[in-house]
Specification:
With about 240 residues, the protein is α/β, with parallel strands linked by helices. The protein is built from seven helices and nine strands; from the N terminus they run βαβαββααβββαβααβ. It has one domain: Rossmann fold (3-Layer(aba) Sandwich), CATH 3.40.50. Helix 1 crosses helix 2. About 40% of the residues are buried. Hydrolysis of 6-phosphogluconolactone to 6-phosphogluconate.
Length: about 240
């Protein structure tokens, strides 16, 4: 299938999406370091990005020139397993020699408003990013930009309150920041995403669609997330 306004690729399964994501990240890193001496990557939360991070933990790369940021974060203590930064550290960053001063977690434990203000200059000093990694929720949200929530047009980082999934308080990069990137990867996996993908294909103004169109995005879907490709029957 093809989503309007963005490049789209359908892969066999979640594992194939993770493998292709890891490959594209490594290729983008090599190109950015060769061209500009640094690679600036925005990380996403969720199971499929974590699968890609596990593959990166086994890879060889010029880690000393990687600079890592987060697209969003939950307002939880820094050591909470529900934090995006903690999950990325556990499966990947604790296992490779990226300098810790080049890993930039969102200080969401300060609260949504204070953390947004603190992260704004960090993002301002990093854009344009070389690559932004995003996922999509079953409601069509991406990062912590949810349907029906006002998206601040000016700031690069915004506080999020009353999120429809816990925790209610979060911090998110805005489209103004996410779209200031040389390339964007949007990962969509699982049968639970079919309805949102169908809405996206029909032109519904979901947050993920708005961001992807403005971000030079490649959308990687697995087969079961694609409405026109139902799951294969279990013959076992």
């Amino acid at each position: 299938m093809q989503l309007t306004g963005v490049e789209t690729q359908v892969l066999a399964d979640t594992e194939a999406v993770a493998a292709e994501t890891a490959r594209l990240i490594l290729d983008a890193a090599a190109d950015a370091i060769a061209a500009r001496g640094a690679f600036r990557l925005v990380l996403a939360g969720g199971s499929t990005p974590l699968a890609a991070y596990r593959l990166l933990a086994q890879a060889q790369a010029d880690w000393a020139h990687w600079h890592l940021y987060h697209g969003d974060e939950r307002c939880l203590p820094p050591d909470s397993p529900e934090r995006n930064s903690r999950a990325a550290d556990d499966v990947w960053l604790a296992k490779v020699p990226v300098p810790r001063e080049q890993v930039h977690p969102i200080p969401a434990e300060q609260g949504a408003a204070a953390a947004s203000a603190a992260y704004e200059p960090v993002v301002a000093g990093a854009v344009p990013f070389d690559l932004v990694l995003l996922g999509m929720g079953e409601d069509g949200h991406t990062a912590s930009l949810f349907p029906g929530h006002e998206i601040c047009p000016g700031p690069l980082v915004m506080p999020v309150h009353d999120a429809p999934k816990p925790p209610p308080d979060r911090v998110s990069l805005t489209p103004s920041a996410l779209c200031r990137s040389r390339r964007m990867l949007v990962l969509v996996t699982g049968a639970g995403k079919q309805a949102a993908v169908a809405r996206w294909a029909a032109g519904d103004g979901l947050p993920v669609a708005r961001v992807a169109v403005g971000g030079n995005a490649l959308v990687l879907l697995d087969r079961v997330a694609t409405p026109s490709m139902p799951p294969e029957p279990d013959l076992g």
